[in-house]
Amino acid sequence: QRSPGRQRVGVGTMSPAIALAFLPLVVTLLVRYRHYFRLLVGTVLLRSLRDCLSGLRIEERAFSYVLTHALPGDPGHILTTLDHWSSHYEYLSHMGPVKGQILMRLVEEKAPACVLELGTYCGYSTLLIAQALPPGGRLLTVERDPRTATVAEKLIRLAGFDEHTVELIVGSSEEVIPCLRTQYQLSRADLVLLIHRPRCYLRDLQLLEAHALLPAGATVLADHVLFPGAPRFLQYAKSCGRYRCRLHHTGLPDFPAIKDGIAQLTYAGPG
């Protein structure tokens, strides 16, 4: 008869045969989801390590690279420099050139007098919008993190855009949207870019509606609606009857196998 201690060891130990039986499944999963695994390692593990070692955030490291490699006053060259840094050094989690072309084309096509961007981050999409604005156009961009906003402000001014063209507001979108009309003299947003947190898209869209900041015909663009995804936002936009919806299918920058998309909504009015 075995002792109780030896019985516990036997129960808690996986036999080599069972472990080997699971090996093909593990290998299959790693191969199938290798792009997601690379993304996880790059954006979480390696980024956290570099943050600790350098004392700088990724957007601060990217800006340091821009300062030494990009041409001041040339937003196109600054954007290309950020793309190069993201592809060759650290994945920046930015919009990237493929989505960027979609955004710039729509801004040029719609020629909005005023654009609202929720989620400045490093300023990449801000520069895309700013260089495509019509003469006299205005861009208000909102960033909740003060440290990130400081980097974005430097990048925007380095590109040559002053505060009359691009105004950066530091604060959460939930707090800023109700103040846009009174505090920032924004009576309507002809084009809105949602690029902050997908889980906040629906809340912020409904806030824009509630404060009558969307004129009929306004365009709302929302990034990352497929990855990581904004299902409640998409369901609302398709079912409420106030929007015409189109989805631009893309991949993530530097990870084209990971499918994502930009939602394009056209506001029909309060109905």
Automatic annotation (TrEMBL):
<keyword id="KW-0128">Catecholamine metabolism</keyword>
<dbReference type="GO" id="GO:0005783">
    <property type="term" value="C:endoplasmic reticulum"/>
</dbReference>
<dbReference type="GO" id="GO:0007605">
    <property type="term" value="P:sensory perception of sound"/>
</dbReference>
<keyword id="KW-0808">Transferase</keyword>
<dbReference type="GO" id="GO:0016206">
    <property type="term" value="F:catechol O-methyltransferase activity"/>
</dbReference>
<keyword id="KW-0812">Transmembrane</keyword>
<dbReference type="InterPro" id="IPR029063">
    <property type="entry name" value="SAM-dependent_MTases_sf"/>
</dbReference>
<comment type="function">
    <text>Catalyzes the O-methylation, and thereby the inactivation, of catecholamine neurotransmitters and catechol hormones. Required for auditory function. Component of the cochlear hair cell's mechanotransduction (MET) machinery. Involved in the assembly of the asymmetric tip-link MET complex. Required for transportation of TMC1 and TMC2 proteins into the mechanically sensitive stereocilia of the hair cells. The function in MET is independent of the enzymatic activity.</text>
</comment>
<keyword id="KW-0256">Endoplasmic reticulum</keyword>
<keyword id="KW-1133">Transmembrane helix</keyword>
<keyword id="KW-1009">Hearing</keyword>
<dbReference type="GO" id="GO:0042420">
    <property type="term" value="P:dopamine catabolic process"/>
</dbReference>
<keyword id="KW-0949">S-adenosyl-L-methionine</keyword>
<dbReference type="GO" id="GO:0032259">
    <property type="term" value="P:methylation"/>
</dbReference>
<keyword id="KW-0489">Methyltransferase</keyword>
<comment type="similarity">
    <text>Belongs to the class I-like SAM-binding methyltransferase superfamily. Cation-dependent O-methyltransferase family.</text>
</comment>
<dbReference type="Pfam" id="PF01596">
    <property type="entry name" value="Methyltransf_3"/>
</dbReference>
<dbReference type="GO" id="GO:0032502">
    <property type="term" value="P:developmental process"/>
</dbReference>
<protein>
    <recommendedName>
        <fullName>catechol O-methyltransferase</fullName>
        <ecNumber>2.1.1.6</ecNumber>
    </recommendedName>
</protein>
<keyword id="KW-0472">Membrane</keyword>
<feature type="transmembrane region" description="Helical">
    <location>
        <begin position="12"/>
        <end position="31"/>
    </location>
</feature>
<keyword id="KW-0531">Neurotransmitter degradation</keyword>
<dbReference type="InterPro" id="IPR002935">
    <property type="entry name" value="SAM_O-MeTrfase"/>
</dbReference>
